[in-house]
Amino acid sequence: MSADQQARAGIQNPGSQAALRGLNEQRILATLRTHGTLTQAALARSTGLSTATISNIVKSMVSTGRVTTTPTTSSGRRALGVTVLDEADVAVGIDFGRSHVRVVLAKSGFRLLDEEFTALEVGHHVEASIDVAARMLEALCERTNTSRSQLIGAGIGIPGPIDHRTNMVIRGAILPEWVDLDIDALLRRALDLPVFIDNDSNLGALAQITWGEHQECANLCFLKIGGGIGSGLILNSSLHYGNLGVTGEIGHSTIFDQGLICRCGNRGCLETVASTGIMVELLSRTENAPVSIENIIERAEAGDSATLRVIDDVGVAVGHALANVANLINPEVIVLGGPLAPLGEALLAPIRRGLQRHAIPVIGENTTLCMSMLGDRAEALGAAALVLRQSAALP
């Protein structure tokens, strides 16, 4: 068939400018679906296309309503953030915690539609908790006029180590009721959706590079301090899973050889000196009733000396453990999340001291330490991002 015949038949020459432009558009869209909103400079780095090509294609796609641009800043300079608009698919993100479940709905392009939170009893029954999440999902769909056909899957965050060969929670989790259960089958049956299960700290890390302010960060550590302490690792812009998927268990690194026995069976783990449960226990000894996390934050803000001392000890221990991580992988940024995030600099300062004391000086001095800007929704947003990235990867 001649070129004229191809043109009349509507067939593009694979080497034509139009075909090349089409391929470049698809490359840009795939990158945005995987990473969320990106600046044009970040798009150029991710796709390998020139900044001029990115700029021209983005302008064209804005005019056809496929993407939108919003003013932003990158490295202190004004820039344009680019976001996909032409997708109807909706991802579900579910974060199961020790005493809560949070469900979010997000559209392609990493746009949050709605969210819902429900408190659960500590030690909640697995099937009952999943039923609660399923009802929350139905309520969100009704509230946002989202049809079941739009849902492409549910990301599931679990606070515990998960063996990715079986998708089962293994021993040492702060939700022992979930250990050794086929939660994949339970969730698929209750939600009637494909499910993608991951450790909540991994999802918190993923949220930082998709929803947070660190989209252009290639090497990042996310640390969640709660009833347990876990971390998620982004290495070369991807989640690091290691051999079995059981990574980032910084809460079970030994801090004191002669310390308390940990629930994992070892002695002197970071969780035995720096979890929120230990903080509550220490600060409740002179009280008539146990203090809460909210009490700890309020007392710290009021300058209570005992509270600040406990926070300082916790921070230095966490910084010590993070120094080992930083020496090993040299992340650009360490982001802290969890219920203690409102403490801000009161917690960051002792962690920074511990990090700089035990890390190689050049690493300690050049590792950025900050609080997550996503609050307590980070893990659920990361769960939705996991679905969106899986969808973008499909042929």
From TrEMBL:
InterPro entries of this UniProt entry? Answer: ATPase_NBD, HTH_MarR-typ, ROK, ROK_cs, WH-like_DNA-bd_sf, WH_DNA-bd_sf
Q: Where in this chain does the record put each HTH marR-type domain?
A: 27-78
Entry annotated with the keyword Kinase: yes
For molecular function, the Gene Ontology terms on record are: kinase activity
**By its UniProt entry, which Gene3D superfamilies does this protein fall under?**
3.30.420.40, Winged helix-like DNA-binding domain superfamily/Winged helix DNA-binding domain
- Name the domain of life this protein comes from: Bacteria
Q: Which SUPFAM superfamilies match?
A: Actin-like ATPase domain (SSF53067), Winged helix' DNA-binding domain (SSF46785)
Give the record's keywords alphabetically: Kinase, Transferase
- State the similarity comment: Belongs to the ROK (NagC/XylR) family.
Q: Identify this protein by name.
A: NBD/HSP70 family sugar kinase
